[in-house]
Amino acid sequence: MLVRNVKFNSDNKIHSIYVNDEGMIECIDCNRKDGTVIDAKGRLISPPFVNPHSHLGYALTLKYAKFNESGTLLEGVQITREEIIPKISEEDLRKRLDIISKMLFINGVLYVRTHEPVLNDLAIKMLRIREEFTNLIRIQVVAFPTPGYFYGDNIERAEKALEEGAEVVGLIPHSEGSIEEGYKSIKIATDLAVKYGRLIDGHVDETDDPSSRFSEALAREALVRGIGKRTSISHMTASHSYDNWYFHKLLLLLRDSGVSVISNPVVSLHLQGRYDNYPKRRGIARIRELMKGGVNVALGSDNVIDAIYPLGDYNMLRVVQEAFLVDHFVASEVTSLISGITENGYKALSIVPPIIEEGQKAQFIILQARNYYDAIRTALPPFLVINGRYYANNNVSFLVNDSDITDKVINIVD
Ligand SMILES: [Zn+2]
Question: Which residues form the Amidohydrolase domain (predicted)?
Answer without folding.
Answer: 186-370
